[in-house]
Each structure stands twice: as structure tokens, then as C-alpha cells.
């Protein structure tokens, strides 16, 4: 059986989310997803970290043999009340997805150094990393190699839903047609993950997730989270 991963989704732990994780997981299973991660916003989970981890870990047991589940978190790096407190870590989570790193107010000015403070594997959510390198004056191959060495990964965000106003990410489309970008990512050994970034179970389109998983597999990317 093939593996289809979707490691970006939001439940009732996020203010912008709404669903009981059971509904989301059932939709993932029905859609043929084999590995599914729940990644609520750090500022939605707030003080409930232990409860969140416990709830998702219980779901891992409940769904054993049907789907592999991960307990993730999406971390806002804007320099406002939503970013984690200084020194706050995310040990106990399976991974963190960092967002807003290309925002002028990001606290993640040293991206790789900041990711290390979370004390769990860290990926970059919905960001054009080639544009990011250009803006920062980084050589992409060099920077992505450093990210890979730090155990980091890059998300292809295939969201298409009401919450995001049925907007598709241009960087994802560009990556799919740009063979030079693909060559650099392969050479750097940077893992590429897939996320639908679901917020409403009725908006979920697992076929978009599967299509991206197949693109990554057919083009020899290392995708498994
Ligand atoms: Zn996000
Ligand atoms: Zn998200």
C-alpha cells in the first residue's frame, strides 16, 4: 500500500478551526490518507498543551491499524502576542510547522537557530522558500542543505477551502513546474511534506493531498515526515 501524508490540519483547538478530531481523521481515512497530522495553532492550544498532547496520543491508540497519526503544532512567528513566549519549547510534540517567517515582523530572524529552540522536528508552512532565500541573500542550495542537516522540512501546502478563500499557493505551482528548484531541493536532501491545512471537514479535498504525494514520489523527493 502506498503512503499518503497530510500533516497540516486544524481542529477545535484553533480559533479558526471547529471540528472534533474524530471527524477530521475519519475524513482522512475515507479519502485514502495513511498518515495524518493535527497541527493546531500554538496560540489556540495556549495553556492546554498537556491536554492537547494527551488527547491526540489517545487518538493514535484508538485509530491504530487504520491510520498513523501525529501530534503537531503550527507556530506563529509574528512579533506579537501570538508568538510563543521566549524560551517556550514544544517537546512532546511530533513536529512543529513554522509560519509567517517571511513577515517583516517575524521573530525567526535566525530561522534554523529559532527552530532548534522548539525541541521537536520543525518544518516551514506555506512559504515560498526560494523567494525567502532571495530576499535574505542566501544561496538556496547552501541554505536548504543547512535546513536538512538541522532535520527541518518544507511544506507543499495544497489548501483549497473556504477559510483560505479558495486560494491556491503559487509557490507550490511554481515548484511543480520548475525543475531547477526541484533539483536544488533534491540535492540539498531537504524533506518535503504535504499539508491541506484543513479547517472545515466539509471542505477537505484528500485528492489534492494524494496528487501532491504522488508528484513528490514520482520525482524522487524524500517526503515522509
Ligand atoms: Zn498557517
Ligand atoms: Zn494552518
How many domains, in number, for the residues? 1
Helicity range: 25-40%
Nearest-integer average pLDDT:
96
Which fold name fills CATH's third level, the topology?
A: TIM Barrel
Bound molecules: zinc ion
Low-confidence stretches: none
**Beta strand count:** 7
The biggest beta sheet, please? Answer: 7 strands, parallel
CATH class: Alpha Beta
> What's the total helix number?
9
| Largest beta sheet: strand ordering | 1-2-3-4-5-6-7
- Strand-pairing-aware structural class: alpha/beta
Gross morphology: globular
CATH level-two architecture? Alpha-Beta Barrel
Beta-strand residue fraction: 15-25%
Series of H and E elements: EHEHHEEHEHHEHHEH
Name of the CATH superfamily: Metal-dependent hydrolases
What is Rg? Answer: 16 Å
Could you give the distance between the termini? 17 Å
Can you walk through the features of this model?
By secondary structure, the protein is an alpha/beta fold. It has one domain (5-218): TIM Barrel, CATH 3.20.20. 37% of the residues lie in helices and 16% in strands. It is built from nine helices and seven strands. The protein has helices spanning 21-30, 42-45, 49-62, 111-116, 129-136, 140-149, 170-177, 179-188, 206-218, and strands at residues 5-6, 35-41, 68-76, 95-99, 122-124, 153-157, 191-195. The chain has a seven-stranded parallel β-sheet with strand order 1-2-3-4-5-6-7. The longest helix has 14 residues, at 49-62. The chain starts with a strand and ends in a 7-residue tail after the last helix. The structure holds zinc ion (2 copies).
Amino acid at each position: 500500500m502506498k503512503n499518503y501524508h497530510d500533516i497540516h490540519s486544524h481542529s477545535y483547538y484553533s480559533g479558526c478551526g471547529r471540528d472534533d478530531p474524530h471527524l477530521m481523521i475519519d475524513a482522512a481515512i475515507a479519502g485514502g490518507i495513511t498518515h495524518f497530522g493535527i497541527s493546531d495553532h500554538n496560540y489556540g492550544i495556549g495553556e492546554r498543551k498537556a491536554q492537547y498532547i494527551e488527547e491526540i496520543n489517545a487518538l493514535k491508540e484508538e485509530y491504530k491499524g487504520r491510520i498513523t497519526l501525529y501530534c503537531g503544532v503550527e507556530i506563529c512567528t509574528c512579533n506579537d502576542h501570538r508568538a510563543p513566549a521566549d524560551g517556550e519549547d514544544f517537546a512532546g510534540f511530533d513536529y512543529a510547522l513554522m509560519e509567517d517567517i517571511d513577515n517583516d515582523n517575524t521573530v525567526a530572524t535566525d530561522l534554523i537557530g529559532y527552530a532548534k529552540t522548539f525541541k521537536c522536528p520543525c518544518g516551514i508552512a506555506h512559504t515560498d522558500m526560494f523567494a525567502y532565500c532571495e530576499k535574505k541573500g542566501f544561496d538556496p542550495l547552501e541554505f536548504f542543505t543547512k535546513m536538512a542537516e538541522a532535520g527541518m522540512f518544507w511544506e507543499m501546502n495544497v489548501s483549497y477551502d473556504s477559510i483560505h478563500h479558495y486560494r491556491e499557493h503559487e509557490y507550490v505551482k511554481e515548484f511543480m513546474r520548475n525543475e531547477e528548484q526541484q533539483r536544488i531541493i533534491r540535492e540539498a536532501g531537504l524533506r518535503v511534506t504535504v499539508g491541506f491545512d484543513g479547517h472545515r471537514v466539509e471542505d477537505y479535498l484528500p485528492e489534492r493531498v494524494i496528487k501532491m504525494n504522488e508528484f513528490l514520489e514520482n520525482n524522487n523527493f524524500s517526503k515522509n515526515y
